[in-house]
Each structure stands twice: as C-alpha cells, then as structure tokens.
Queue: 2 jobs
Job 1
Amino acid sequence: TPVIGVLALQGDVREHLVALAAAGAAARAVRRPEELAEVDGLVLPGGESTTISKLAGLFGVLEPLRARVREGLPVYGTCAGMILLADKILDPRSGQETVGGIDMIVRRNAFGRQNESFEAAVDVRGVGGGPVEGVFIRAPWVESVGAAAEVLAEHDGHVVAVRQGNALATSFHPELTGDHRVHRLFADTVRANRAARSL
Ligand code: GLN
C-alpha cells in the first residue's frame, strides 16, 4: 500500500485524507520534514496558497519539499495546491513563493471571486468513465504550459488540469465530490513510482 501524505498546514486536508483512503492509499497528515521523508507521494490541498507557502517556510518543510519534488516525488495539487506546483505565478502576491515542479504559469483567482464559484463537468485525459464533476472555488487557471507539461483538461478554453512527470495539478477539487477517480489516478502514479524505485 502506498503511503500518501497530505500537506496539513491549512486547507481541505481532511477531505483529501478521506479520498486517498478510498483510493486505496495509506493516508497521513504531513507537517514536518521528518513526516515528509516517510511518504511515497504528497497531496497539496486546496485552501489559501499564500498561507500554505508561508506556513511551509515556518515549519521548515518548504525546502525539503522542493528537493523531494525535484527528485521525482509524486505530488498532486488541487486549486491552491496547483498554484504551489507552478514554476511561476502571474502577479504573485509580494513575496509569494511556490514549491514548483510543473513548467506552467498559473493565474490565481482567474475564474472570479468566491461568489462566482461554480461546478462543471470536466473531461480529464487518463480518467475513464466519463467527465468528473469539477468544483471550482476561487480557482486558478493555467495561463500557459511549457513543453514538458501535458494538458489533461480544459474548461471554457482555459487549462484546468496538467501533468508533468509525477506531478499532477487540477484547478478544481475532486476531494469534495465523493468521486475518487482522480485520486485513484494519482495513487496509481505513486504505486508505479514506488515499484520503479525498488527495482
Ligand atoms: N484562491 C486561492 C489561492 O489563491 C485558492 C482557492 C482554493 O484552493 N479553493 O490560493
């Protein structure tokens, strides 16, 4: 069973833990570098990206996380988590740092304010069984992707799901829907990566 952590500094941690368990992973909260060292994969939850990156710095987990992502740790970011995985943010809040890992430029709050949050059916490449229900809450979109990144989904002409190597990001929140197909896709990546590393 792959051990998948959820970065538990702020945001919808509990929902991801439930979804990961349903997807067949051993799920646990990660706050400290020692906890990060023990996981085979990590989810960066939805929430407030500026708060999460600030706390990650304070908890001393930001640099170790960057290092593990560079080494190929499978990571999955939803919404704020997507922002954290972007190599570049358009108009970053001053001093706003990211973890990086996906060669893309992300625009925060691109779909509008909190009261313009919405749901829409989204076709995600690699996820069988029809479209997933996309929950967009002050969601970012991907302004542009580099050559190494693969677009997995679009909504209204905007990129809302991207993968690069072992890193996956969605603008929307599958953890809020009870449909665990995207978490299963990520758990499969974690399993495959773990198997490849133990050869
Ligand atoms: N707007 C938030 C941010 O910029 C993300 C919102 C979310 O994760 N639902 O971090």
Job 2
Amino acid sequence: MTNMINKAIATVIPYCPKKFIWVFSKKYIAGVSVQDAIKVSQSLNEQGVCVTVDLLGEFITNIRQADEHLEEYLQIIASFEKAQIKGNYSLKPTSFGLLIDPEKCYQNIRGIVALASKHKNFVRIDMEDAQRVDQELLLYLRLKRAFPNNVGLVLQAYLKRTQADLEELLKEHTPDSPLNFRLCKGIYNESADIAFKDGEKINRNYLKLLERMLCEGVYVGIATHDQALIKGAYELIDKYNVPKDMYEFQMLYGVTPKLRSSIVADGHKMRVYVPYGEDWFGYSTRRLKENPKMAQHIIKSIFVK
Ligand code: FDA
C-alpha cells in the first residue's frame, strides 16, 4: 500500500506547482545565486567539510543556454577561488549541450577544466541517465588526456555495465594520469534490463566496485547516505589499510547531516555536493521521486496542523 502511495506521489510530482516543490527543495538547494552557494560552502567549510558546487540546469534544449552555463561556471570558479572556499566543481554534460552539439559540449567543459586547473583545482563530471554513459565516458577520457589531474567521473553501481566499464577504465590508470571516481548508486529511473532494481543487489555491486577501486589505488569519492554502505566502506578501508588521502566520503547538501558529522568525527574526509541556481525544479523533482516519503511529510505539514 505504502509503495502504491509512493508511486502515485512520484508520478504527480512533476505536475506539482513550483511553490509546493520549493517547500521541499529549499533544504537541498543552496539558493539561486553564486553568493548563496558561497555562503553555504563557507558554513560547511567551518564544519570541517569541503564542498563540490554544481550549477543546476541539465538537459538543455537550446545551445545558447550552454554558453550561459559556460559563462556562469567560469564566474563560479573565479568567485569560489577568490573566496578561498575549500571545494571543487561538479557539472552535468547535458548542461553544456551534449544532446545538441557534443563537440561544443566538449569545448565548453574543456574551458571550465582549464580554468580549474589554473587554480590547481578539479572538476567532476556527473553521470547522467544510461543513454548518456558511452558519451560521458569518452568525454572524461578526452578531458583526462588534456588535464590528467584535474578531472574525474561518476560511476553508478545500479548499472549492470559498470563493472565492465571500470575494467576498461582501469587500463587508463597510470601514476601520471590517475583515475578519480565518485561512486554512487545512481538516481535515474532505468529499466531492469540494464540496471539492478533490488536494493541489496545494488549495494553488493557498490561494495564490489569500491573494493576494486580501492585495491587498484584509484581515488574514490564514496557518495552515499546509506549506513550499510558506509559500514561496508569502513570495513574495506580497514581491510586494505587505505591511506586517508586516497578516498573521501560525499553527501548531498541537506541530507543526513547527523550521519555526515559522525563520519567527520571518525576522522574521514567529507565533501558535500552543493547545488544552486535558478533551475532548481528538475533537480528537486528527481530527489522527490527518489524519496517520495519526503513528499508525504510535506503534505502532512501543509494539511495537518
Ligand atoms: P539510499 O537512497 O538508500 O539512501 C539512504 C538513506 O539516506 C535514506 O534511507 C534516507 O534516510 C537518506 N536519503 C537519501 N536520499 C535522500 C533524500 N533525497 N532526502 C532525504 N533523505 C535521503 N546519482 C547519479 O546518477 N549521478 C551522479 O552524478 C550523482 N552524483 C551524486 C553526488 C553525491 C555527492 C551524492 C551523495 C549522490 C549523487 N548521486 C548521483 C545520487 C545517488 O546516485 C543516489 O541516488 C543518492 O545518493 C541516494 O542513494 P544513497 O546511496 O544515499 O542510498
């Protein structure tokens, strides 16, 4: 029954008034301006947490938006470096025209990585839906050739193909050009043909991939709020005596802050993903679909006084 309610909520979410979605979203979005993102990042830095900032606005349909996103990212980097924020940058290739003009998308992202590398900083390519994986793997490898230490990729444990992708990518792992991944479960709604749907299977694959990365000396951002995965990661870190500068934990802004603090208190590096921007709607509806229980809480707080 609860599952049916959750499914129904997930279906109607995209049609909800923006005002309603904002009630939920403000907890997870740093704000609409770069100044808002800096303020949130400064506060996280004070808590001993570094950040990765992301300008919202994926799946663009007009190439002019790609230019706007490029300009804004260059501004973000300039502002974040000036404010001496402890953090790096995340971006989604479809924000830069991957669906419209892949070469322009590459050139745009190259410009961003070039500026980050001037500041000895780093850009993480988020992984989007399964149809984008081949293109985003190639994009990453091309950027890695140009900026061997300034770019990383996300891999998703729910995809059945990820194990094979990882084995291929490991061939590109050299001391001068090391791989750097964020490992997450995956957030898009993929079909059972290509993705594990069962939570336990996803977790098993996650820990298998993590073990392989840690054993191969790949830097990993362990991106999860799942206590079972965090426990599993702790065990692997202990088992292989992984040095503290070879991994970090990562969480989303606004999600499980207590668990985040406990990981920091245990002495591990933590990075929080700080999304901001005018285009918060798509990001928020995905988070709500992922966790419809949140929508139930909001509905309750609106109707049950
Ligand atoms: P799970 O979903 O099982 O959550 C564990 C617990 O965390 C829940 O029981 C709940 O308590 C809490 N929780 C999780 N999400 C919550 C939410 N939205 N609101 C409130 N509580 C919540 N995906 C992708 O496909 N491509 C990408 O590039 C990225 N990038 C990325 C960066 C970072 C830093 C993180 C942490 C995550 C991503 N993701 C992502 C999203 C990821 O794939 C996944 O969907 C979410 O992290 C949720 O999975 P968990 O591992 O947290 O487990």
